[in-house]
Amino acid sequence: MRKRKHGFLLLVIILFVFCSLNLPRSITPLAHYSTPASGKMSTEFSADKAYEHILHLSEKIGPRPAGSQNETKAAQYLYYMLEQYGWKVREQPFSKIVSNSNPLKPEHKIQVINSQNIIAELPGALPETILLGAHYDSADISAPGAIDNASGVGVLLEIARILGQEKHQKSYQIVFFGAEENGLVGSQYFTAQSDLSAIQWMLNLDMVGTPLEIDIAGKTSAPPELVDKVVTIARQEQIPFHISRDFVVMTREGSQGGSSDFSPFLDQGIPALGLGIAGRAEGYYHRPEDRIEQVTLQSLDTVGKFIPKLIDSVEVTGSGQKTWDSYYLPFQLGSFVLIIPTLGLRILFILIIFFTLFSISRSFRDKEPFIQGDLKEYVLVGVGIPVVAFLVSFLSGTGEWLWQFIKERVYLWQAYPGVFLILRVIMVLCALLIFLRLLRSFPQPKGGKLYWLVGVLILTLLSIILGLYRIDLAFPFLFWLFCFNLFLYYPSIVLLFIGPYFIYKTHWELLNSQQWSGFYETIHLYPIVFIVLYGLLFIPVLLGGLYILEKGKRPWDQMLKRLFIPALILGVGIVLGTGLIPNYNKTNPQPISVQKVWTESEEVVLRISSTDTLSKNLIAELDSKETKVGEDKKTLELPIPSEKPPLQANVSVTDTGGRLLNFKMAMKYGRDPYLVRIKLESKRPFKIREMDDFIPIAKLPKKIALEGKEHNGSYTLLLERTPPHQGVTQWKIAAEGIVKCSIEVVFADQSPRYSIKLPHISSEYKEVYQDVFEF
């Protein structure tokens, strides 16, 4: 009878999970998202016309960073084309102050971002509006931005041409956002300053290509019904796609809250999602290689024909701000997307917690005692399991750390991050097998039921803490807890490795996203933190493994003995073989910066630098008697013939008493710079009291102060401004000690002296004026 009850309970949970999964339905109208009665577009999308727009933006205009003249030229081009297509167009200029909130970059950084949004309207018979958006700026002065995001702009311009030739009931709005690459600045400004009451839903294009990324991730996720509808149409059109997952490591807890310009609309309660290229960004992402050659007509055609179908098929009841279930979890199985709503997660949470309590009570009712044998054996195992867990976590990266030292590289994974992730998983399995065998060789208590109880309590505590913080974040541990409960009834090695499946899945999703490189760099920046975090996660795995060794029906001890030597050999082989994996390849080259640098003495040098150590081939090619290679081998300098600097600078500081200093900087530019950067450093606190429009104090949010922020015993403040720049900048600064001021002005290098063309190297060229003084 007891077995029947257990089976019935398991069946109820499985049925509930299945019933709470919403499969994307067919074209059947949904509660708020249905098929409109209006007719479909008759004008055909032309990939060739979209391609012409992309060619003009990326090649004829070129790189378009925020505030630059090229961005202004692009804005004028968009304005002109939209007017030609019959739209009512206006500009929305903005100047916004942005403060750095990245914990990995502790310096206090304040930026002034100047740009403009281009807003076009096409009124219909009804006020309800569909908004389409794309950003038209590029990442840097060296990035032409063909894919990111001239491709989205070109497709949207062609959609504008089609809509302008159609009679329609609905109203349409197209917004080309500026300064997206600076942190969604243009879209955040638009949503904060504009009337959104007529908008039904918003679709954003960022990096057009296939397979298609249907991006729903932000601080607030896209409405599940809207996701359902878009996915259904993509499946019907047989378009390969991937739906983004909004895990904490990717978006929700980030400073921007999303990856593109649809996210600020979600924050304002406007249904929105984005279309882009699925998968990890290629090596041309934000690089000079992002040229027109990366664009394919087939991708333009696929996305360009998909968007009109979305416009025709998705109908949202009402307009303006809405509320919806935003903490659901989507799971993709091929072309089907399963959605667990928040209510389903909460009920599932309660059921699994009750199942856990039932399992614990049952374990206490069993005749087998939890503690058998000498207490010293429990102490030995209690100390051994955490030590082994942290050793497993540490050993997972030994191959990379060893070869980083031997190859004198900071990172090894750029070309093949997937291979390194797989090697880490295999290394973890090998280490687990080795240490489980070693643990079993020590005296330890019999029975092993205590292993199960401790593991269940750890996972229950984790699930409750995360569930109280954010229910969707608790799901991976809830699933793991459910599997751990099943150990009591079915002690199986399969459950041991299926339990943390969704934690593996999180990392795999992260690997195939633009956030992967930042996550990996974070691991290398704070290795001890991640060794501890992952070590804690290995503790339940070890507890479950020891329980299965005791209770499993198969002779697992014999298998461990047989696998010990192969696991040891395979682990050593992985550590030694890691060095054979190329660090860079043609698709993912090593990025280097080639800067023509003028110093305060007006001497000019060519400075070549990288976040990683420079290749020996590059150093050999540029080697000469006067070449200076940095100790870390990340920088290389060589003198070049003197040239006239792109600006003339004059800096003066006067002390007005009481350590209140008047600072004045006069600059005469030969041409417009891309960026002016001023860094202040001091061993004592300092604060800027007055300042002109370089950083307009009157516009500063209350939470931002123009003062040095303490880090590692030094106070720093970094000020940046995009064009336009004033010729004279002055402010008053209150300082308690000596202040070091570093000035850096960045220009595009229009005629590079050295063109570096080596395999597996991506070069970007800039001109930089630098000055350093103390007061």
Automatic annotation (TrEMBL):
<keyword id="KW-0031">Aminopeptidase</keyword>
<keyword id="KW-0645">Protease</keyword>
<protein>
    <submittedName>
        <fullName>Putative aminopeptidase</fullName>
    </submittedName>
</protein>
<keyword id="KW-1133">Transmembrane helix</keyword>
<feature type="transmembrane region" description="Helical">
    <location>
        <begin position="378"/>
        <end position="395"/>
    </location>
</feature>
<feature type="transmembrane region" description="Helical">
    <location>
        <begin position="415"/>
        <end position="438"/>
    </location>
</feature>
<dbReference type="Pfam" id="PF04389">
    <property type="entry name" value="Peptidase_M28"/>
</dbReference>
<feature type="transmembrane region" description="Helical">
    <location>
        <begin position="336"/>
        <end position="358"/>
    </location>
</feature>
<feature type="transmembrane region" description="Helical">
    <location>
        <begin position="525"/>
        <end position="548"/>
    </location>
</feature>
<feature type="transmembrane region" description="Helical">
    <location>
        <begin position="477"/>
        <end position="504"/>
    </location>
</feature>
<keyword id="KW-0378">Hydrolase</keyword>
<feature type="transmembrane region" description="Helical">
    <location>
        <begin position="563"/>
        <end position="581"/>
    </location>
</feature>
<keyword id="KW-0472">Membrane</keyword>
<dbReference type="InterPro" id="IPR007484">
    <property type="entry name" value="Peptidase_M28"/>
</dbReference>
<keyword id="KW-0812">Transmembrane</keyword>
<feature type="transmembrane region" description="Helical">
    <location>
        <begin position="450"/>
        <end position="471"/>
    </location>
</feature>
<dbReference type="GO" id="GO:0006508">
    <property type="term" value="P:proteolysis"/>
</dbReference>
<feature type="domain" description="Peptidase M28">
    <location>
        <begin position="117"/>
        <end position="307"/>
    </location>
</feature>
<dbReference type="GO" id="GO:0008235">
    <property type="term" value="F:metalloexopeptidase activity"/>
</dbReference>
<dbReference type="GO" id="GO:0004177">
    <property type="term" value="F:aminopeptidase activity"/>
</dbReference>
<dbReference type="InterPro" id="IPR045175">
    <property type="entry name" value="M28_fam"/>
</dbReference>
